[in-house]
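Narrative progress, year one. The postdoctoral researcher (J.K.) led the effort to move from monomer predictions toward full complexes, under supervision of the PI. The following entry was the first complex the group processed end to end, covering 421 residues in total.
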Amino acid sequence: MDERFNKEFEQLALPLLDPLYNFACWLSGNPDEARDLVQETFVKALKAFASFQAGTNFRAWMFRILRNTFLTSRTGLERRNTSQQDEDGYDEAVVSYDTPELAIMRQADTELVQASIARLSPVFQEVLLLADIEEMKYQEVAETLAIPIGTVMSRLARARKQVREHIVDALGKKS
Amino acid sequence: MNCEYRQKIALYADGELGPPEQQEVSRHLATCPECSAALLELLEMKKSVRLAGSRFSAPPELRRAVQEKLRVRETSAVFWKWGFAAACCLLVAMLGVMIYSRQQRQDWVIASLVDQHVTNLASNLDHRVDVLSTDRHTVKPWFQGKLPFTFNLPEITADSPFKLIGGKVAYQGQEPGAELLYEIRKHEISVFIFRGQEGSSKLVHDRGSSFTVEHWTEGGLRFYVVTDANSEEVDQLASMLQQANR
């Protein structure tokens, strides 16, 4: 492994530090664990960088390493075991489109949106984070999570619906 | 209520439509308040989620730790790279020194044996050998109890150009060994036998001092043949000695 190889990795990977840490915090719900996850991700990625094929999506590759590292951690295993809920068989075609609540959405403060995201089950949460925070294309999300694009679309629709319902519900109760 | 374009609103908001579809939906949005409202709400939600979700940024100590880890690997890679190169150089140098010193030692041994051979030639026959006999069955047993090893002598037939004259104990590096004297057409040949390393080594010719010296290792013994006879004759005697000691 030469110096140029390390420099190349550093240039590609360091700009992803904040997004990876943010994703790790959401996944684990614990800053200390997120720190460890990110460090482990960088070490693993550098080790495996030789096998990374130029031209493929580096960002998706890094997020995939982080997510896989999380899934094999104790917290990851616990979350995986408790989150296999009513996801299978979901089809975007049957999503019911409620009346838009633009005014309510505008009232939602950051804290409420954060609480809504936090309530999502991991499979919906990670799709929403990658698509709306990291602004990944569906294809990139599919690569990161190793799932079909159709599943990305249906999970994303469902995640947004749940966030919206929670916000509407919370603000409705308040008023 | 459920406009046929509603399903495309999310794809439109996420920039997942191709240019023709994008334009088509844009045109539709201009005429459909329901879809426009849905799009606005979705964009609003995307913005809210982006702002609320970008909640954590890496603390400075994490950035330092990651950079440190990358640097450590880099430094260790550089260390190993240069360390390996340095170790290779050192190994080559050590091997060179070993080969050189071994060669020096070998040169010194040969020089001292040539000296002994020349000294012997200058002596009276009485002093050249301590056991004077052409019979190998007399010469070999004479060394019993005088040397910490044993060896075989080749049979010299009546028609052989070689003649065994006798032998005596010689020393080299404070180690006792056998010095045997042969003759071929008035040329005397000294054969020195000392203890050596196990294994065998090939015959080496050395004509550095105008004498022909051949040496080899066989069965844990070092053999040196020193003479001013020609090298073909030395080869012949060396071959007989090798066969006798296999």
